[in-house]
Write a structure and sequence with these properties.
26% of the residues lie in helices and 17% in strands. By secondary structure, it is of the alpha/beta class. The chain is elongated, with a radius of gyration of 22 Å. It binds NADP nicotinamide-adenine-dinucleotide phosphate.
């Protein structure tokens, strides 16, 4: 099972949870921008805002599959002794569930809980939640971030950018043939690296690469200042950004706007022989376009951490193509211990009506 880490650096939280009340009762209000035409203010009044001690019926449900399921259950139950925590298929009273802590919940499954107060993604991405066509409307969605996640992603991006920059794949292949080939690469300051997505992870990766001396540029939806990084914003700026990205790194969230963005047309817009690192989501890459782009010389090498189907099937051509490095969604794996603590803390804050940094905007998709 693919798991993700968290980042404690809440950079782009656009929604706020506040504790306010006209009658002295804590309430949770979520305000956010939805829709593409204008901003609409939504307010969600939580069904059961009081502390657990006053509401013993409040419970939490977990959806984690695979080997870690028991661990998560034991850990979350230990961290939230005030609140029963139930595995997905063992909830005695669905009406009492206020929090759903999930990784890839089954479509329609969250509808079973009519009094949900929040859906918590075990991971930084929420695409696995938003993909549900029967997602209950108006329920706040949180992602799980943390400094641990950012650090691991920094390491992964630095590692593979340096490998591509220093032509390591070609040097390794030559060494395997006993071939003394010297490949002289340009200095980092002349190597133009492009980071798609400048959120928690992308901005950290861009700063790390700038610190290594690369000529770094980033692309996001909105303009912002990032030290030593040239920022391109919006679709209109994409061609100019691509034109100058000899190593392209994808750290976008998967949304309707970004699905399939790594495609034949984009590869042809890069400098010839560019390197690609995709640590965003498998859905960003049109898999059928990758090997033809390598064959055509638009790309020279690709490092892929995420795939449309995970685990990657055993007979998938990506495994054996020497121009493609596969990593098994380990760029920035969640540290379960840190993750569980962050999730428990966020649930406590919601119960206390304290601000939450990790709310996402469902209309935006991230
Ligand atoms: N491989 C792994 O192990 C792993 C681990 C964790 C996360 N991830 C993936 O990494 C993704 C990014 O995480 P994050 O925490 O950095 O996300 P984030 O903080 O939500 O930032 C997303 C960034 O993408 C930009 N963006 C979104 N849609 C865009 C569009 N249509 N055009 C241009 N820019 C767009 C945003 O622009 P604005 O700033 O202008 O809004 C923002 O800069 C996650 O969603 C997840 O899929 C992978």
């Amino acid at each position: 099972m693919a798991r993700e880490p968290h980042d404690p650096t809440p950079t782009f939280s656009v929604l706020n949870a506040t504790n306010s009340a006209s009658d002295g009762q804590p309430r949770l209000y979520i305000a956010g921008c939805i829709g593409t035409v204008g901003a609409v203010l939504i307010a969600v009044r939580c069904a059961n805002p009081c502390p657990f001690s006053k509401h013993p019926g409040v419970s939490c449900v977990l959806h984690v599959s695979g080997a870690r399921a028991d661990w998560w259950h034991t850990r979350m139950a230990g961290l939230l002794p005030e609140m029963p925590v139930y595995p997905w298929n063992a909830v005695p009273d669905p009406g009492a569930v206020r929090y759903a802590v999930v990784w890839k919940p089954p479509p329609g499954g969250l509808r079973r809980f009519p009094a949900l107060r929040a859906i918590v993604s075990i991971g930084a991405g929420v695409d696995h939640v938003l993909i549900d066509p029967d997602l209950p409307l108006g329920v706040p969605i949180l992602r799980t971030t943390g400094g641990d996640l950012t650090q691991r992603m920094r390491e992964y991006i630095a590692l593979h950018t340096l490998r591509l920059h220093r032509a390591e794949p070609a040097l390794r292949a030559a060494a395997a043939r006993g071939d003394w080939t010297q490949i002289v690469t340009p200095p980092a300051a002349r190597r133009r690296v492009g980071v798609m997505g400048l959120g928690t992870l992308g901005s950290a990766a861009a700063r790390t690469l700038a610190g290594l001396g690369f000529a770094v540029q980033g692309w996001a939806r909105s303009k912002r200042a990032l030290e030593n990084v040239t920022v391109f914003a919006g679709d209109a700026a994409l061609p100019a950004f691509l034109e100058a990205s000899e190593i392209l790194i994808c750290l976008l969230p998967l949304t309707d706007a970004t699905r399939g963005i790594l495609n034949a047309r984009l590869f042809a817009a890069l400098p010839a022989g560019a390197g690609l690192i995709n640590a965003g989501r498998g859905g960003h890459l049109v898999e059928a376009d990758l090997i033809p782009a390598l064959d055509a010389g638009h790309l020279s090498h690709a490092v892929l951490d995420v795939f449309e189907t995970e685990p990657l099937l055993g007979d998938h051509p990506f495994w054996t193509d020497p121009r493609i490095d596969v990593t098994p969604h380990t760029a920035s794996l969640i540290d379960p211990d840190t993750g569980a603590r962050l999730i428990a803390e966020n649930i406590r804050r919601m119960e206390a009506g304290a601000p939450i940094d990790d709310l996402i905007d469902p209309a935006r998709g991230y």
